[in-house]
Amino acid sequence: MYDVQQVNGGGEGGCVSAAEWDAFKQDVLREMRTQLNQIKKEILDV
């Protein structure tokens, strides 16, 4: 995954590139969708 210090700008580079930030956002959205789909499935299976 991503290093929190790097994402927060605490790494050696001092900032995260736009491409890295977009990749991070896409990864978070993908994980959120996966979790929401799992929750919906659990609710519907009850």
From TrEMBL:
Q: Which domain of life is it from?
A: Eukaryota
Q: Which Gene3D superfamilies match?
A: Vasodilator-stimulated phosphoprotein (1.20.5.1160)
* Residue ranges constituting the VASP tetramerisation domain according to the UniProt record: 19-45
Q: What is this protein called?
A: VASP tetramerisation domain-containing protein
